[in-house]
């Protein structure tokens, strides 16, 4: 997969290249990461990328010209999705990450900055994505979240692919409790059911724990799980790849 990021701070993405399994996946060629700085496409002597907003108001707004120029210089693969990182976007879900990891050859992530961006920049994106109901100084951290979440799902990134199927949010439910040795630690015991070797009983206990945890900690997820008949979440994602 090819990942392109339009950002004013490309250096923020360099640590991803050395980040555990994510960095190893880049090194192995499972994914490639490319950054594009709109400042490099500004045409004035000061490389200006922002300006005051029409109508007045606090702060500066990202100009459309350098962003469009940076975007249009990116090579385009056939199955490409363009995502704009924005607090106004659709909340990011695990099903979205899985869809992009399995259905896209290229992700282009647009990062806003300053007080906001010119509304016309939205026309470049297939969809807008938010990582929560809060505002950051730019779209870089949300973009890194998407990159991490997608790359870890690419074949070969995680050593045991089956582990991805049972983790939190894979089927709308939170993950069940996990234990390892020792069986007893400071008065806290590993549940006996996990130590009896009866795989069907263990599977039943784990599923019950998933239901209980989701119901108590994320009643919104539990309600969605019920509405979908206790099955996997709809895998459709904002900005579907062709």
Give a quick summary of the entry.
The chain has 242 residues and is an alpha/beta fold.
Characterize the structure shown:
The chain folds into two domains: 150 residues, 3-Layer(aba) Sandwich (Alpha/beta knot), CATH 3.40.1280.10; 67 residues, Trp Operon Repressor, Chain A. It has a five-stranded parallel β-sheet with strand order 2-1-6-5-8. A three-stranded mixed β-sheet has the order 3-4-7, with no helix packed on it. It is α/β, with parallel strands linked by helices. It is built from six helices and ten strands, in the order E-H-E-E-E-H-E-H-E-E-E-H-E-E-H-H. It is elongated and about 70 Å long.
Task: Report, as a whole number of angstroms, the end-to-end distance.
Answer: 15 Å
The strand line-up of the biggest sheet is 2-1-6-5-8
CATH architecture of the largest domain: 3-Layer(aba) Sandwich
Structural class: alpha/beta
String of helices and strands: EHEEEHEHEEEHEEHH
- Taken as a percent bin, the fraction of beta residues is 15-25%
**Radius of gyration, in angstroms, nearest whole number:** 21 Å
Which CATH class of the largest domain applies here? Alpha Beta
The CATH superfamily name of the largest domain is: SPOUT methyltransferase, trefoil knot domain
Please tally the helical runs, counting DSSP H or I stretches of 4 or more residues. Answer: 6
Average residue pLDDT: 92
Query: Low-confidence spans: pLDDT under 50, at least 5 residues?
Result: none
Shape, principal axes of CA atoms: elongated
In CATH, the topology of the largest domain is named Alpha/beta knot
Biggest sheet details: 5 strands, parallel
Q: Would you count the extended β strands for me? A: 10
The portion of residues assigned to helices is 25-40%
Count structural domains: 2
């Amino acid at each position: 997969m090819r990942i392109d990021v339009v950002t004013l701070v490309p250096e923020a993405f360099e640590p991803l290249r050395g980040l555990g399994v994510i960095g190893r996946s880049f090194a192995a060629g499972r994914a490639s990461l490319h950054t594009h700085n709109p400042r490099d496409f500004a045409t004035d002597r000061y490389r200006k990328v922002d300006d005051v907003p029409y109508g007045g108001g606090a702060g500066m707004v990202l100009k459309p010209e350098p962003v469009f120029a940076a975007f249009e210089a990116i090579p385009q693969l056939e199955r490409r999705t363009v995502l704009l990182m924005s607090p106004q976007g659709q909340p990011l879900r695990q099903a979205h990450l899985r869809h992009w990891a399995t259905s896209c050859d290229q992700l282009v992530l647009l990062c806003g900055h300053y007080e906001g961006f010119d509304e016309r920049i939205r026309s470049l994106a297939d969809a807008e994505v938010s990582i929560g109901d809060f505002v950051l100084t730019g779209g870089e951290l949300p973009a890194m979240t998407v990159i991490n979440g997608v790359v870890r799902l690419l074949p070969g990134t995680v050593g045991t692919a089956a582990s991805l199927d049972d983790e939190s949010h894979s089927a709308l439910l939170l993950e069940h409790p996990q234990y390892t040795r020792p069986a007893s630690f400071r008065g806290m015991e590993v549940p006996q059911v996990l130590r009896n070797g009866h795989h069907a009983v263990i599977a039943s206990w784990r599923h019950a724990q998933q239901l209980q945890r989701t119901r108590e900690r994320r009643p919104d997820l539990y309600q969605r799980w019920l509405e979908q008949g206790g099955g996997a979440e709809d895998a459709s994602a904002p900005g579907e790849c062709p």
